[in-house]
């Protein structure tokens, strides 16, 4: 059955999208000619659903004509189906006009035709270093899903790509959605209030000053439908190990919250320990999220006793500018009933700890607590916290006493933006930077430091092995 599906894909693409992207422009495209758009998207090899989430909304300065350059296969079909669902939804439908090229030379054709000025990358991570390097060398802006790289050997290539982008005056930027989660924003803002938080402690290796722990699931719902993952997602040589994948977000948050606006360098990083371990997936579970009856040949290397061992889990403990930090990611097959991906975060200050929890007690909704309060008078501290919260750029926040020494920040539903919507927020910010012609001065050094941290941790976790 799987073979039949693959065989009919070319006909589906050619009949709906034209051969080699040569279809006639639709009425939507004709209408778009009435306006001069500053940005034209070119999505390359979209193998991850994040590529579609960039287009879940429309942007005033972005042309509705979006080009896709990809190999023939289910990844491309699923991407186009997601865009189609956004165009056809009842509430606030989008109006994207996807113009698709599916030749074997799709990347070379993209560089040759250049119908756009922004390359969107979200897919097989093994190819990203090459895609980024060649796109930047061609003078194209790049908006890339995390991670930009998954191997220590690709780190020098990424550093050079940032150098070239700077010389050419173009932007290379990764999609850091977690900066837009409201509890994380409030945690950062409160950590900058010395009357409430004091100062971030240095911490120790055993009890770091800041910890970020993330739990994800292979089986999940996206845009209201069960997510079908590509089989290669389970190959760490293509997707990347957990310690260089989701941890990209966590390392970014450590930098963004603890040292906001500061220019960081790899020399600021000292990794104390790093480890990795597998999630074990049965054939039945694998079929449930990929549709494949058996593990593909390229996954057989990771099969033991009939089950797939995916090194999707990782943890690192390190110092950043002398402050101890811990990040950890775990992948389970499926979330508990009513649950989903979860995030735990703590920042330890001299006056209190700021803690984000997202467990069953919080009904799996990220919730910000103020804990371990060191004030001699809880009444005085509560009054000061309420005054500080009232001055934040978020109205209707409330401080609730949960139990002795534990306070909770109640956040109105209007600030609860879903993970899917965060992609639109990141893209909108990227477009702002494009209009200014530059990124904030701390962003590129921060990205370089971030990927130095993740790839160095992978090398250590694998016992010093290269790539």
Low-confidence region ranges: 1-34
Question: What would CATH call the homologous superfamily of the largest domain?
Answer: Dihydrodipicolinate Reductase, domain 2
Proportion in helices: 25-40%
CATH fold assignment of the largest domain = Dihydrodipicolinate Reductase, domain 2
Q: Care to count the β-strands?
A: 18
Global shape: globular
CATH architecture heading of the largest domain: 2-Layer Sandwich
Task: Explain what this protein looks like in three dimensions.
34% of the residues lie in helices and 23% in strands. The chain has 467 residues and is of the alpha/beta class. The protein has 2 domains: 2-177 and 426-440, Rossmann fold; 179-418 and 449-461, 2-Layer Sandwich (Dihydrodipicolinate Reductase, domain 2). The longest helix is centred in the C-terminal third of the chain and has 19 residues, at 443-461. The radius of gyration is 23 Å and the shape is globular.
């Amino acid at each position: 059955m799987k073979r039949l599906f693959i065989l009919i894909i070319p006909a589906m693409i050619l009949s709906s999208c034209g051969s080699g992207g040569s279809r006639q422009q639709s009425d939507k495209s004709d209408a778009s000619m009435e306006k001069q758009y500053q940005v034209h998207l070119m999505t390359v090899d979209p193998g991850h659903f994040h590529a579609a989430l960039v287009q879940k909304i429309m942007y005033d300065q972005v042309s509705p004509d979006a080009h896709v350059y990809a190999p023939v296969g289910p990844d491309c079909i699923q991407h186009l189906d997601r865009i189609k669902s956004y165009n056809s939804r009842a509430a606030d439908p989008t109006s994207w006009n996807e113009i698709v090229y599916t030749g074997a030379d799709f990347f070379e054709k993209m560089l040759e035709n250049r119908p756009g000025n922004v390359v969107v990358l979200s897919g097989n991570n093994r190819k990203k270093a090459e895609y980024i390097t060649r796109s930047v060398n061609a003078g194209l802006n790049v908006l890339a899903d995390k991670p930009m790289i998954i191997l220590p050997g690709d780190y020098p290539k990424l550093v050079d790509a940032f150098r070239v982008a700077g010389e050419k005056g173009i932007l290379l930027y990764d999609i850091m959605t977690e900066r837009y989660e409201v509890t994380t924003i409030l945690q950062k803002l409160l950590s900058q209030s010395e009357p409430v938080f004091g100062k971030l402690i240095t911490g120790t290796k055993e009890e770091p000053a800041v910890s970020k722990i993330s739990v994800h699931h292979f089986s999940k719902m996206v845009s209201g439908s069960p997510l079908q993952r590509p089989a290669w997602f389970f190959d760490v040589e293509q997707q990347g190990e957990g310690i260089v994948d989701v941890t990209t977000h966590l390392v970014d948050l450590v930098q963004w919250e603890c040292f906001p606006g500061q220019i960081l360098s790899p020399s600021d990083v000292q990794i104390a320990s790093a480890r990795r371990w597998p999630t074990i997936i049965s054939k039945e579970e694998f079929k449930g999220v990929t549709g494949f009856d058996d593990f593909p040949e390229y996954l057989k290397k990771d099969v033991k006793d009939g089950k797939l061992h995916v090194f999707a889990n990782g943890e690192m403990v390190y110092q950043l500018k002398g402050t101890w930090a811990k990040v950890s990611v775990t992948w389970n097959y499926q979330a508990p009933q009513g649950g989903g991906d979860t995030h735990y975060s703590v920042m330890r200050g001299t006056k209190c700890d700021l803690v984000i929890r997202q467990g069953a007690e919080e009904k799996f909704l990220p919730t910000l607590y103020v804990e371990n309060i060191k004030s001699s008078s809880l009444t005085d501290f509560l009054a000061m916290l309420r005054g500080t919260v009232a001055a934040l750029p978020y109205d209707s926040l409330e401080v609730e006493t949960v139990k002795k020494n534990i306070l909770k920040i109640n956040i109105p539903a209007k600030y609860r933006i879903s993970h899917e919507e965060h992609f639109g927020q990141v893209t909108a910010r990227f477009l702002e930077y494009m209009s200014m012609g530059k990124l904030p001065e701390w962003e590129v050094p921060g990205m370089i430091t971030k990927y130095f941290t993740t790839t160095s941790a992978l090398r250590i976790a694998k016992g010093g092995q290269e790539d």
